[in-house]
Amino acid sequence: MSTAGIREIGGNVLAVRKIETSSGTVEFIRRAATGPLSWKFQQPVLTLLWWYSGVKALDLEVDGRSVRSDISPSANFALIPPMTRVAGEFAVSEINDYAVAFFDPTQILKRARYEFERPLIAFGNQNLQRGLESLSRESENR
Questions:
Q1: Superfamily for 6-135?
Q2: 87 has which bridge partners?
Q3: Residue 47 CB neighbour total at 10 angstroms
Protein backbone atom coordinates (compact mmCIF):
# COMPACT_ATOMS: atom_id res chain seq x y z
CA MET A 1 0.00 0.00 0.00
CA SER A 2 1.50 3.31 -1.07
CA THR A 3 1.29 6.30 1.24
CA ALA A 4 3.00 8.64 -1.22
CA GLY A 5 1.42 12.04 -0.94
CA ILE A 6 2.02 15.27 0.93
CA ARG A 7 3.27 14.94 4.48
CA GLU A 8 5.08 18.08 5.63
CA ILE A 9 5.14 18.50 9.39
CA GLY A 10 7.20 21.00 11.37
CA GLY A 11 9.42 20.28 14.33
CA ASN A 12 11.98 17.51 14.60
CA VAL A 13 11.23 13.80 14.65
CA LEU A 14 12.73 12.21 17.75
CA ALA A 15 11.41 8.66 17.31
CA VAL A 16 9.16 6.59 15.04
CA ARG A 17 7.81 3.12 15.74
CA LYS A 18 6.19 1.59 12.66
CA ILE A 19 3.90 -1.45 12.59
CA GLU A 20 2.55 -3.20 9.51
CA THR A 21 -0.85 -4.85 9.98
CA SER A 22 -3.16 -6.72 7.63
CA SER A 23 -5.27 -3.56 7.35
CA GLY A 24 -2.50 -1.02 6.91
CA THR A 25 0.41 0.73 8.58
CA VAL A 26 0.52 2.43 11.99
CA GLU A 27 3.27 4.84 13.04
CA PHE A 28 3.81 6.15 16.57
CA ILE A 29 5.74 9.41 16.30
CA ARG A 30 7.46 11.62 18.89
CA ARG A 31 8.39 15.16 17.82
CA ALA A 32 10.10 18.12 19.36
CA ALA A 33 8.88 21.61 18.51
CA THR A 34 9.38 25.12 19.76
CA GLY A 35 6.16 26.95 19.09
CA PRO A 36 3.27 25.90 16.88
CA LEU A 37 3.71 22.77 14.76
CA SER A 38 2.96 23.41 11.08
CA TRP A 39 1.10 20.69 9.21
CA LYS A 40 0.48 20.07 5.50
CA PHE A 41 -1.01 16.70 4.70
CA GLN A 42 -2.74 14.86 1.85
CA GLN A 43 -2.61 11.08 1.40
CA PRO A 44 -4.07 8.68 -1.19
CA VAL A 45 -5.36 6.38 1.58
CA LEU A 46 -7.74 6.61 4.52
CA THR A 47 -5.81 8.06 7.48
CA LEU A 48 -6.55 7.94 11.20
CA LEU A 49 -4.69 10.35 13.49
CA TRP A 50 -4.51 10.08 17.28
CA TRP A 51 -2.92 12.93 19.24
CA TYR A 52 -2.18 11.48 22.67
CA SER A 53 0.49 13.58 24.39
CA GLY A 54 1.59 17.19 24.22
CA VAL A 55 -0.88 18.31 21.54
CA LYS A 56 -3.16 21.02 22.92
CA ALA A 57 -5.19 22.46 20.05
CA LEU A 58 -5.52 22.56 16.28
CA ASP A 59 -6.25 25.31 13.78
CA LEU A 60 -6.63 23.70 10.37
CA GLU A 61 -8.07 24.14 6.94
CA VAL A 62 -9.58 20.85 5.81
CA ASP A 63 -10.51 20.84 2.12
CA GLY A 64 -11.10 24.59 2.33
CA ARG A 65 -13.06 24.57 5.60
CA SER A 66 -11.70 26.10 8.77
CA VAL A 67 -11.56 23.79 11.80
CA ARG A 68 -10.43 24.89 15.27
CA SER A 69 -10.56 22.67 18.33
CA ASP A 70 -8.89 21.96 21.62
CA ILE A 71 -7.40 18.47 21.90
CA SER A 72 -8.59 16.45 24.89
CA PRO A 73 -9.26 12.76 25.65
CA SER A 74 -12.78 13.27 24.29
CA ALA A 75 -11.51 15.01 21.13
CA ASN A 76 -8.14 13.57 20.11
CA PHE A 77 -8.76 11.67 16.86
CA ALA A 78 -9.21 12.62 13.22
CA LEU A 79 -10.27 10.45 10.30
CA ILE A 80 -9.13 11.81 6.96
CA PRO A 81 -10.54 10.34 3.72
CA PRO A 82 -8.18 9.74 0.79
CA MET A 83 -6.93 12.88 -1.01
CA THR A 84 -8.35 15.28 1.60
CA ARG A 85 -6.14 18.37 1.97
CA VAL A 86 -5.23 19.38 5.52
CA ALA A 87 -3.06 22.40 6.35
CA GLY A 88 -2.57 24.52 9.46
CA GLU A 89 -1.02 24.50 12.89
CA PHE A 90 -1.12 22.67 16.17
CA ALA A 91 -0.45 24.21 19.58
CA VAL A 92 1.96 21.72 21.15
CA SER A 93 4.23 21.14 24.09
CA GLU A 94 7.96 20.98 23.43
CA ILE A 95 7.65 17.19 23.17
CA ASN A 96 4.52 15.74 21.56
CA ASP A 97 3.35 12.28 20.56
CA TYR A 98 0.81 11.11 18.03
CA ALA A 99 -0.07 8.07 15.97
CA VAL A 100 -0.97 7.94 12.32
CA ALA A 101 -2.58 4.91 10.71
CA PHE A 102 -2.86 4.47 6.97
CA PHE A 103 -5.58 2.13 5.72
CA ASP A 104 -6.40 0.77 2.31
CA PRO A 105 -9.92 2.16 1.77
CA THR A 106 -11.01 -0.93 -0.17
CA GLN A 107 -10.12 -3.12 2.85
CA ILE A 108 -12.07 -0.82 5.18
CA LEU A 109 -15.05 -0.86 2.82
CA LYS A 110 -15.00 -4.67 2.82
CA ARG A 111 -14.77 -4.94 6.61
CA ALA A 112 -16.84 -1.99 7.78
CA ARG A 113 -19.17 -1.86 4.78
CA TYR A 114 -18.86 1.91 4.95
CA GLU A 115 -16.99 4.33 2.72
CA PHE A 116 -15.52 7.29 4.56
CA GLU A 117 -16.04 10.34 2.37
CA ARG A 118 -16.07 13.18 4.92
CA PRO A 119 -13.32 14.10 7.35
CA LEU A 120 -14.02 13.75 11.06
CA ILE A 121 -11.82 16.09 13.11
CA ALA A 122 -11.38 16.16 16.91
CA PHE A 123 -13.58 13.27 17.99
CA GLY A 124 -13.11 10.78 20.79
CA ASN A 125 -13.46 7.01 20.80
CA GLN A 126 -12.46 4.92 23.81
CA ASN A 127 -12.33 1.65 21.87
CA LEU A 128 -9.98 3.11 19.25
CA GLN A 129 -7.87 4.64 22.00
CA ARG A 130 -7.58 1.35 23.91
CA GLY A 131 -6.67 -0.51 20.72
CA LEU A 132 -3.97 1.98 19.76
CA GLU A 133 -2.63 2.07 23.33
CA SER A 134 -2.29 -1.71 23.20
CA LEU A 135 -0.60 -1.59 19.79
CA SER A 136 1.77 1.10 21.06
CA ARG A 137 2.80 -1.04 24.04
CA GLU A 138 3.30 -4.01 21.74
CA SER A 139 5.50 -1.94 19.40
CA GLU A 140 7.69 -0.85 22.32
CA ASN A 141 8.46 -4.51 23.06
CA ARG A 142 9.59 -5.34 19.54
A1: Jelly Rolls (2.60.120.10)
A2: 40, 61
A3: 25
